[in-house]
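=== RUN LOG ===
request id: a7f3
mode: sequence -> structure
chains: 1
length: 451
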Amino acid sequence: MAARKTQTRSRADDAWSLPPLFESQTREGMKVIVMPRGTLPLVTVRVVIEAGSAYDPKGKEGLADFTIRLMRRGAAGMSAKELDDAIEFTGSSLSVGVSEELMILHLTCPEAHLKAMLGVVGKVLARPDFPEDELERLRSRTIAQLVNEQDDPGALAERAQTEAYWGRHPYGHDTSGTRKSVKRFTREDVVAFHRDRMGPRVALAAVVGAVEPKATARMVERAFADFTGGPEKRTHFEAPASVPQGQVLIVDKPEQTQAQVRLAGPAYPFADPAHFPAVVMNVALGGGFTSRLINEIRVNRGLTYGISSGFAPMRAAGMFLVSTFTKTGTAHEIIRRTLDELHKLRRGGLSSEELTHAQTYLAGLYPLRNETHDALAASLAELITYGQGPEWIEQYRARVRAVTLDEANEAARNWLYREPPLVVVVGRASELKGPLADFGEVTVKPAASFA
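=== RESULT ===
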Protein backbone atom coordinates (compact mmCIF):
# COMPACT_ATOMS: atom_id res chain seq x y z
CA MET A 1 0.00 0.00 0.00
CA ALA A 2 1.41 3.36 -0.97
CA ALA A 3 0.55 7.02 -1.04
CA ARG A 4 1.02 8.93 -4.24
CA LYS A 5 1.28 12.68 -3.76
CA THR A 6 0.09 14.51 -6.82
CA GLN A 7 1.82 17.57 -8.21
CA THR A 8 0.82 21.16 -7.55
CA ARG A 9 0.71 23.74 -10.32
CA SER A 10 2.90 26.78 -10.15
CA ARG A 11 0.40 29.41 -11.30
CA ALA A 12 -1.41 30.81 -8.26
CA ASP A 13 -4.72 31.11 -10.07
CA ASP A 14 -4.51 27.48 -11.22
CA ALA A 15 -3.19 25.94 -7.98
CA TRP A 16 -5.30 22.95 -7.08
CA SER A 17 -3.66 20.28 -4.98
CA LEU A 18 -5.71 17.19 -4.15
CA PRO A 19 -5.07 15.16 -0.99
CA PRO A 20 -2.63 12.25 -1.29
CA LEU A 21 -4.02 9.22 -3.07
CA PHE A 22 -3.53 5.87 -1.34
CA GLU A 23 -3.39 2.84 -3.59
CA SER A 24 -3.54 -0.85 -2.81
CA GLN A 25 -4.65 -4.12 -4.34
CA THR A 26 -6.76 -6.88 -2.86
CA ARG A 27 -5.48 -10.43 -2.75
CA GLU A 28 -7.68 -11.24 -5.72
CA GLY A 29 -6.20 -8.40 -7.78
CA MET A 30 -8.76 -5.62 -7.45
CA LYS A 31 -7.25 -2.13 -7.44
CA VAL A 32 -8.33 0.07 -4.51
CA ILE A 33 -7.75 3.81 -4.29
CA VAL A 34 -8.63 5.94 -1.28
CA MET A 35 -8.59 9.73 -1.13
CA PRO A 36 -9.27 11.19 2.34
CA ARG A 37 -11.06 14.47 1.79
CA GLY A 38 -13.00 16.94 3.90
CA THR A 39 -14.47 16.68 7.35
CA LEU A 40 -18.13 16.07 6.53
CA PRO A 41 -18.81 12.45 7.60
CA LEU A 42 -19.99 11.27 4.19
CA VAL A 43 -18.21 8.81 1.92
CA THR A 44 -18.54 7.91 -1.75
CA VAL A 45 -17.50 4.52 -3.08
CA ARG A 46 -17.43 3.98 -6.82
CA VAL A 47 -16.71 0.53 -8.21
CA VAL A 48 -16.01 0.26 -11.93
CA ILE A 49 -15.61 -3.01 -13.81
CA GLU A 50 -14.48 -3.27 -17.41
CA ALA A 51 -17.62 -5.12 -18.40
CA GLY A 52 -19.83 -2.52 -20.10
CA SER A 53 -22.08 -2.91 -23.10
CA ALA A 54 -19.16 -3.44 -25.49
CA TYR A 55 -18.81 -6.86 -23.83
CA ASP A 56 -22.38 -7.90 -24.61
CA PRO A 57 -22.52 -11.21 -26.52
CA LYS A 58 -23.72 -10.96 -30.10
CA GLY A 59 -27.49 -11.24 -30.18
CA LYS A 60 -27.69 -10.44 -26.46
CA GLU A 61 -27.17 -6.68 -26.70
CA GLY A 62 -28.02 -4.97 -23.40
CA LEU A 63 -26.98 -7.95 -21.28
CA ALA A 64 -24.35 -6.05 -19.26
CA ASP A 65 -26.87 -3.40 -18.26
CA PHE A 66 -29.50 -6.03 -17.51
CA THR A 67 -27.04 -8.05 -15.40
CA ILE A 68 -25.93 -5.20 -13.15
CA ARG A 69 -29.50 -4.03 -12.61
CA LEU A 70 -30.61 -7.56 -11.74
CA MET A 71 -27.70 -7.93 -9.31
CA ARG A 72 -29.20 -5.02 -7.39
CA ARG A 73 -32.48 -6.94 -7.01
CA GLY A 74 -31.28 -9.72 -4.71
CA ALA A 75 -27.97 -11.00 -3.31
CA ALA A 76 -26.67 -13.45 -0.68
CA GLY A 77 -30.22 -14.42 0.26
CA MET A 78 -31.37 -10.82 0.68
CA SER A 79 -34.40 -9.89 -1.38
CA ALA A 80 -34.64 -6.64 -3.32
CA LYS A 81 -36.74 -5.16 -0.52
CA GLU A 82 -34.28 -6.26 2.14
CA LEU A 83 -31.41 -4.71 0.20
CA ASP A 84 -33.38 -1.48 -0.21
CA ASP A 85 -34.29 -1.42 3.47
CA ALA A 86 -30.70 -2.02 4.59
CA ILE A 87 -29.44 0.80 2.38
CA GLU A 88 -32.19 3.30 3.18
CA PHE A 89 -32.05 2.61 6.93
CA THR A 90 -28.53 4.04 7.06
CA GLY A 91 -29.34 7.06 4.89
CA SER A 92 -27.28 5.61 2.05
CA SER A 93 -27.86 5.19 -1.67
CA LEU A 94 -26.63 2.56 -4.11
CA SER A 95 -27.06 3.02 -7.86
CA VAL A 96 -25.86 0.89 -10.74
CA GLY A 97 -25.42 1.35 -14.47
CA VAL A 98 -23.19 0.81 -17.48
CA SER A 99 -21.42 2.78 -20.16
CA GLU A 100 -19.99 1.35 -23.36
CA GLU A 101 -16.94 0.04 -21.52
CA LEU A 102 -17.64 0.18 -17.79
CA MET A 103 -20.07 -1.36 -15.34
CA ILE A 104 -20.61 0.96 -12.38
CA LEU A 105 -21.79 0.65 -8.77
CA HIS A 106 -22.00 3.95 -6.91
CA LEU A 107 -22.47 4.07 -3.13
CA THR A 108 -22.91 7.16 -0.97
CA CYS A 109 -23.20 6.63 2.76
CA PRO A 110 -22.48 8.15 6.17
CA GLU A 111 -18.95 7.34 7.33
CA ALA A 112 -20.33 5.59 10.42
CA HIS A 113 -22.05 3.02 8.19
CA LEU A 114 -19.28 2.53 5.65
CA LYS A 115 -18.31 -0.94 6.85
CA ALA A 116 -21.88 -2.23 6.72
CA MET A 117 -22.57 -0.66 3.34
CA LEU A 118 -19.35 -2.04 1.85
CA GLY A 119 -20.61 -5.42 3.02
CA VAL A 120 -23.82 -4.88 1.08
CA VAL A 121 -21.91 -3.86 -2.06
CA GLY A 122 -19.67 -6.89 -1.64
CA LYS A 123 -22.73 -9.17 -1.58
CA VAL A 124 -24.18 -7.55 -4.68
CA LEU A 125 -20.86 -7.91 -6.49
CA ALA A 126 -19.91 -11.42 -5.46
CA ARG A 127 -23.12 -13.26 -4.58
CA PRO A 128 -26.06 -12.07 -6.68
CA ASP A 129 -29.06 -14.40 -6.58
CA PHE A 130 -30.61 -13.43 -9.92
CA PRO A 131 -34.15 -14.36 -8.82
CA GLU A 132 -36.39 -15.48 -11.68
CA ASP A 133 -39.31 -13.33 -10.55
CA GLU A 134 -37.10 -10.23 -10.43
CA LEU A 135 -35.66 -11.14 -13.83
CA GLU A 136 -39.13 -11.16 -15.38
CA ARG A 137 -40.07 -7.89 -13.69
CA LEU A 138 -36.88 -6.27 -14.93
CA ARG A 139 -37.48 -7.62 -18.43
CA SER A 140 -40.95 -6.09 -18.47
CA ARG A 141 -39.68 -2.72 -17.21
CA THR A 142 -36.82 -2.68 -19.72
CA ILE A 143 -39.08 -3.48 -22.66
CA ALA A 144 -41.55 -0.81 -21.53
CA GLN A 145 -38.71 1.70 -21.37
CA LEU A 146 -37.59 0.78 -24.87
CA VAL A 147 -41.14 1.17 -26.15
CA ASN A 148 -41.35 4.62 -24.53
CA GLU A 149 -38.11 5.67 -26.22
CA GLN A 150 -39.82 5.18 -29.58
CA ASP A 151 -41.81 8.30 -28.73
CA ASP A 152 -38.69 10.29 -27.81
CA PRO A 153 -37.09 11.57 -31.03
CA GLY A 154 -33.94 12.67 -29.20
CA ALA A 155 -33.36 9.23 -27.68
CA LEU A 156 -34.13 7.64 -31.03
CA ALA A 157 -31.57 9.87 -32.74
CA GLU A 158 -28.87 8.92 -30.23
CA ARG A 159 -29.60 5.21 -30.66
CA ALA A 160 -29.59 5.47 -34.46
CA GLN A 161 -26.37 7.49 -34.47
CA THR A 162 -24.61 4.93 -32.28
CA GLU A 163 -25.63 2.00 -34.47
CA ALA A 164 -24.94 3.79 -37.75
CA TYR A 165 -21.56 5.19 -36.76
CA TRP A 166 -19.99 2.22 -35.00
CA GLY A 167 -21.67 -0.50 -37.04
CA ARG A 168 -20.40 -3.98 -36.12
CA HIS A 169 -17.84 -2.63 -33.67
CA PRO A 170 -18.47 -3.59 -30.00
CA TYR A 171 -19.54 0.04 -29.37
CA GLY A 172 -22.21 -0.23 -32.04
CA HIS A 173 -25.38 -0.72 -30.01
CA ASP A 174 -27.31 1.07 -27.31
CA THR A 175 -26.39 0.06 -23.76
CA SER A 176 -30.00 -1.02 -23.10
CA GLY A 177 -30.15 -3.37 -26.08
CA THR A 178 -33.35 -3.85 -28.05
CA ARG A 179 -36.75 -5.34 -27.33
CA LYS A 180 -35.74 -8.36 -29.39
CA SER A 181 -32.50 -8.94 -27.49
CA VAL A 182 -34.03 -8.33 -24.05
CA LYS A 183 -36.73 -10.90 -24.75
CA ARG A 184 -33.96 -13.49 -25.27
CA PHE A 185 -32.25 -13.05 -21.91
CA THR A 186 -32.30 -16.06 -19.60
CA ARG A 187 -31.07 -16.52 -16.06
CA GLU A 188 -28.24 -18.63 -17.49
CA ASP A 189 -27.17 -15.65 -19.60
CA VAL A 190 -26.81 -13.29 -16.65
CA VAL A 191 -25.10 -15.95 -14.52
CA ALA A 192 -22.59 -16.57 -17.32
CA PHE A 193 -21.97 -12.84 -17.87
CA HIS A 194 -21.33 -12.34 -14.16
CA ARG A 195 -19.02 -15.35 -14.02
CA ASP A 196 -17.08 -14.74 -17.23
CA ARG A 197 -16.95 -10.95 -17.61
CA MET A 198 -16.92 -9.58 -14.07
CA GLY A 199 -13.99 -10.03 -11.74
CA PRO A 200 -11.49 -8.26 -9.48
CA ARG A 201 -8.66 -8.12 -12.02
CA VAL A 202 -10.71 -5.88 -14.31
CA ALA A 203 -12.21 -3.82 -11.47
CA LEU A 204 -11.34 -0.80 -9.37
CA ALA A 205 -12.85 0.66 -6.20
CA ALA A 206 -12.45 4.39 -5.52
CA VAL A 207 -13.26 5.74 -2.06
CA VAL A 208 -13.46 9.48 -1.38
CA GLY A 209 -14.43 11.10 1.89
CA ALA A 210 -13.57 11.65 5.54
CA VAL A 211 -11.82 8.29 6.03
CA GLU A 212 -8.51 6.87 7.21
CA PRO A 213 -6.91 5.42 4.06
CA LYS A 214 -5.21 2.27 5.35
CA ALA A 215 -8.13 1.21 7.49
CA THR A 216 -10.53 1.87 4.62
CA ALA A 217 -8.46 -0.17 2.18
CA ARG A 218 -8.52 -3.09 4.65
CA MET A 219 -12.27 -2.66 4.98
CA VAL A 220 -12.68 -2.90 1.20
CA GLU A 221 -10.44 -5.97 1.12
CA ARG A 222 -12.60 -7.79 3.67
CA ALA A 223 -15.93 -6.70 2.16
CA PHE A 224 -14.96 -7.81 -1.36
CA ALA A 225 -13.11 -10.99 -0.38
CA ASP A 226 -15.67 -13.18 -2.16
CA PHE A 227 -15.45 -11.23 -5.41
CA THR A 228 -13.24 -13.66 -7.33
CA GLY A 229 -12.79 -15.17 -10.79
CA GLY A 230 -13.55 -13.38 -14.01
CA PRO A 231 -11.09 -12.34 -16.73
CA GLU A 232 -7.36 -12.41 -16.12
CA LYS A 233 -6.96 -9.10 -17.96
CA ARG A 234 -9.04 -6.57 -19.82
CA THR A 235 -10.11 -7.05 -23.42
CA HIS A 236 -8.37 -4.75 -25.87
CA PHE A 237 -10.74 -3.20 -28.41
CA GLU A 238 -9.25 -2.02 -31.67
CA ALA A 239 -10.36 1.17 -33.34
CA PRO A 240 -12.76 0.50 -36.22
CA ALA A 241 -11.01 0.08 -39.56
CA SER A 242 -13.36 2.67 -41.05
CA VAL A 243 -16.37 4.77 -40.10
CA PRO A 244 -19.21 5.97 -42.31
CA GLN A 245 -18.59 9.29 -44.00
CA GLY A 246 -20.73 11.18 -46.46
CA GLN A 247 -23.78 9.08 -45.60
CA VAL A 248 -27.25 10.13 -44.51
CA LEU A 249 -29.55 8.02 -42.36
CA ILE A 250 -33.17 9.16 -42.04
CA VAL A 251 -35.16 7.51 -39.27
CA ASP A 252 -38.71 7.83 -40.47
CA LYS A 253 -41.30 9.14 -38.03
CA PRO A 254 -44.10 10.47 -40.26
CA GLU A 255 -45.95 12.10 -37.35
CA GLN A 256 -43.00 14.38 -36.50
CA THR A 257 -43.18 18.08 -37.33
CA GLN A 258 -39.60 18.64 -36.19
CA ALA A 259 -36.36 16.91 -37.14
CA GLN A 260 -33.72 15.74 -34.68
CA VAL A 261 -30.30 16.15 -36.31
CA ARG A 262 -27.01 14.47 -35.42
CA LEU A 263 -23.65 14.74 -37.18
CA ALA A 264 -20.75 12.41 -36.37
CA GLY A 265 -17.13 12.02 -37.43
CA PRO A 266 -13.89 10.52 -36.07
CA ALA A 267 -11.98 11.88 -33.07
CA TYR A 268 -9.31 10.92 -30.56
CA PRO A 269 -9.51 8.15 -27.87
CA PHE A 270 -9.87 8.71 -24.13
CA ALA A 271 -7.09 10.59 -22.30
CA ASP A 272 -5.24 11.39 -25.52
CA PRO A 273 -3.07 14.55 -25.34
CA ALA A 274 -5.18 15.90 -28.22
CA HIS A 275 -7.94 16.41 -25.66
CA PHE A 276 -6.83 19.79 -24.35
CA PRO A 277 -6.49 21.71 -27.63
CA ALA A 278 -9.66 20.03 -28.87
CA VAL A 279 -11.90 20.92 -25.93
CA VAL A 280 -10.61 24.50 -25.89
CA MET A 281 -11.38 24.83 -29.58
CA ASN A 282 -14.80 23.27 -29.11
CA VAL A 283 -15.87 25.74 -26.42
CA ALA A 284 -15.58 28.46 -29.03
CA LEU A 285 -17.33 26.36 -31.66
CA GLY A 286 -20.30 24.79 -29.88
CA GLY A 287 -19.47 23.93 -26.30
CA GLY A 288 -20.34 27.21 -24.61
CA PHE A 289 -23.26 29.60 -24.25
CA THR A 290 -21.67 32.18 -26.56
CA SER A 291 -20.27 29.76 -29.12
CA ARG A 292 -20.18 30.27 -32.87
CA LEU A 293 -22.88 27.66 -33.48
CA ILE A 294 -25.21 29.23 -30.91
CA ASN A 295 -24.69 32.69 -32.35
CA GLU A 296 -25.02 31.73 -36.00
CA ILE A 297 -27.62 28.95 -35.91
CA ARG A 298 -29.82 30.04 -33.02
CA VAL A 299 -29.38 33.77 -32.49
CA ASN A 300 -28.77 35.07 -36.00
CA ARG A 301 -30.85 32.63 -38.02
CA GLY A 302 -33.44 31.33 -35.55
CA LEU A 303 -33.19 27.78 -36.85
CA THR A 304 -33.27 26.09 -33.43
CA TYR A 305 -33.51 26.67 -29.70
CA GLY A 306 -30.41 24.61 -29.06
CA ILE A 307 -27.29 23.31 -30.78
CA SER A 308 -24.11 21.89 -29.29
CA SER A 309 -20.94 20.13 -30.31
CA GLY A 310 -18.52 17.98 -28.38
CA PHE A 311 -16.17 15.03 -28.22
CA ALA A 312 -17.10 11.53 -27.05
CA PRO A 313 -13.80 9.69 -26.48
CA MET A 314 -13.60 6.02 -25.51
CA ARG A 315 -10.66 3.67 -25.08
CA ALA A 316 -10.37 2.54 -28.69
CA ALA A 317 -11.54 5.65 -30.51
CA GLY A 318 -13.86 8.61 -30.25
CA MET A 319 -16.42 10.74 -32.06
CA PHE A 320 -16.88 14.41 -32.71
CA LEU A 321 -20.59 15.15 -32.53
CA VAL A 322 -23.03 17.94 -33.31
CA SER A 323 -26.55 17.74 -31.91
CA THR A 324 -29.53 19.95 -32.71
CA PHE A 325 -33.17 20.01 -33.85
CA THR A 326 -35.29 22.15 -36.14
CA LYS A 327 -38.48 22.25 -38.18
CA THR A 328 -38.70 19.62 -40.90
CA GLY A 329 -38.58 22.28 -43.60
CA THR A 330 -35.32 23.76 -42.32
CA ALA A 331 -33.40 20.52 -41.74
CA HIS A 332 -31.34 20.99 -44.90
CA GLU A 333 -30.55 24.59 -43.99
CA ILE A 334 -29.46 23.83 -40.43
CA ILE A 335 -27.11 21.08 -41.59
CA ARG A 336 -25.66 23.27 -44.33
CA ARG A 337 -25.18 26.26 -42.03
CA THR A 338 -23.60 24.05 -39.37
CA LEU A 339 -21.15 22.53 -41.84
CA ASP A 340 -20.36 26.02 -43.11
CA GLU A 341 -19.45 27.14 -39.58
CA LEU A 342 -17.23 24.11 -39.07
CA HIS A 343 -15.55 24.72 -42.42
CA LYS A 344 -15.03 28.40 -41.55
CA LEU A 345 -13.32 27.51 -38.26
CA ARG A 346 -11.30 24.73 -39.86
CA ARG A 347 -10.01 27.11 -42.54
CA GLY A 348 -9.76 30.40 -40.65
CA GLY A 349 -9.11 29.31 -37.08
CA LEU A 350 -9.98 30.94 -33.76
CA SER A 351 -9.19 34.50 -32.82
CA SER A 352 -6.97 35.16 -29.83
CA GLU A 353 -10.01 36.57 -28.02
CA GLU A 354 -11.97 33.35 -28.60
CA LEU A 355 -9.04 31.31 -27.31
CA THR A 356 -8.76 33.36 -24.12
CA HIS A 357 -12.49 33.24 -23.49
CA ALA A 358 -12.59 29.45 -23.97
CA GLN A 359 -9.64 28.90 -21.65
CA THR A 360 -11.16 31.10 -18.94
CA TYR A 361 -14.50 29.32 -19.25
CA LEU A 362 -13.01 25.82 -18.97
CA ALA A 363 -10.55 26.72 -16.21
CA GLY A 364 -13.35 28.22 -14.15
CA LEU A 365 -15.83 25.42 -14.72
CA TYR A 366 -13.64 22.37 -14.18
CA PRO A 367 -13.22 22.65 -10.39
CA LEU A 368 -16.99 22.89 -10.00
CA ARG A 369 -17.35 19.61 -11.86
CA ASN A 370 -15.19 17.85 -9.27
CA GLU A 371 -16.11 19.63 -6.06
CA THR A 372 -18.32 16.86 -4.60
CA HIS A 373 -17.13 13.48 -3.36
CA ASP A 374 -19.42 11.82 -5.91
CA ALA A 375 -17.96 13.72 -8.85
CA LEU A 376 -14.36 13.31 -7.73
CA ALA A 377 -14.75 9.56 -7.14
CA ALA A 378 -16.27 9.20 -10.60
CA SER A 379 -13.42 11.15 -12.23
CA LEU A 380 -10.70 9.27 -10.37
CA ALA A 381 -12.20 5.84 -11.06
CA GLU A 382 -12.50 6.52 -14.78
CA LEU A 383 -9.12 8.17 -15.18
CA ILE A 384 -7.18 5.51 -13.30
CA THR A 385 -9.01 2.72 -15.13
CA TYR A 386 -7.81 4.28 -18.37
CA GLY A 387 -4.21 4.61 -17.21
CA GLN A 388 -4.19 8.19 -15.99
CA GLY A 389 -3.97 9.59 -12.46
CA PRO A 390 -5.13 12.42 -10.22
CA GLU A 391 -2.53 14.68 -11.83
CA TRP A 392 -4.90 14.83 -14.83
CA ILE A 393 -7.36 16.63 -12.52
CA GLU A 394 -4.77 18.73 -10.73
CA GLN A 395 -3.11 19.87 -13.94
CA TYR A 396 -6.28 20.30 -15.95
CA ARG A 397 -6.57 24.08 -15.69
CA ALA A 398 -2.87 24.63 -16.33
CA ARG A 399 -2.99 22.41 -19.40
CA VAL A 400 -6.07 24.24 -20.67
CA ARG A 401 -4.35 27.61 -20.25
CA ALA A 402 -1.21 26.28 -21.93
CA VAL A 403 -3.02 25.57 -25.20
CA THR A 404 -1.70 27.87 -27.91
CA LEU A 405 -3.67 29.40 -30.74
CA ASP A 406 -1.77 27.21 -33.20
CA GLU A 407 -2.64 24.06 -31.23
CA ALA A 408 -6.34 24.95 -31.01
CA ASN A 409 -6.46 25.67 -34.73
CA GLU A 410 -4.66 22.42 -35.50
CA ALA A 411 -7.38 20.63 -33.49
CA ALA A 412 -10.00 22.30 -35.68
CA ARG A 413 -8.20 21.11 -38.81
CA ASN A 414 -7.91 17.57 -37.41
CA TRP A 415 -11.40 16.97 -36.07
CA LEU A 416 -13.95 19.25 -37.73
CA TYR A 417 -15.04 16.83 -40.44
CA ARG A 418 -12.22 16.92 -42.94
CA GLU A 419 -14.41 14.38 -44.76
CA PRO A 420 -18.21 14.69 -44.96
CA PRO A 421 -19.72 13.39 -41.70
CA LEU A 422 -22.38 10.82 -41.02
CA VAL A 423 -25.73 12.65 -40.89
CA VAL A 424 -28.58 11.14 -38.86
CA VAL A 425 -32.00 12.76 -38.92
CA VAL A 426 -35.16 11.60 -37.16
CA GLY A 427 -38.27 12.98 -38.82
CA ARG A 428 -40.65 12.83 -41.77
CA ALA A 429 -38.73 10.93 -44.46
CA SER A 430 -41.11 11.90 -47.27
CA GLU A 431 -40.07 15.55 -46.87
CA LEU A 432 -36.44 14.99 -45.87
CA LYS A 433 -35.15 12.42 -48.35
CA GLY A 434 -34.82 14.68 -51.38
CA PRO A 435 -33.17 17.72 -49.77
CA LEU A 436 -30.79 15.70 -47.61
CA ALA A 437 -29.33 13.89 -50.61
CA ASP A 438 -27.04 16.90 -50.90
CA PHE A 439 -25.07 15.52 -47.92
CA GLY A 440 -24.52 11.97 -49.12
CA GLU A 441 -26.17 8.70 -50.02
CA VAL A 442 -29.50 8.49 -48.23
CA THR A 443 -30.80 5.46 -46.36
CA VAL A 444 -34.28 5.48 -44.84
CA LYS A 445 -35.22 3.18 -41.97
CA PRO A 446 -38.46 3.04 -39.99
CA ALA A 447 -38.27 4.09 -36.35
CA ALA A 448 -39.37 0.58 -35.36
CA SER A 449 -36.08 -0.84 -36.64
CA PHE A 450 -34.31 0.84 -33.70
CA ALA A 451 -36.54 -0.70 -31.03
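=== NOTES ===
Residues 2-223 form a domain with the Cytochrome Bc1 Complex; Chain A, domain 1 fold (CATH 3.30.830.10).
The longest helix spans residues 132-149.
=== END ===
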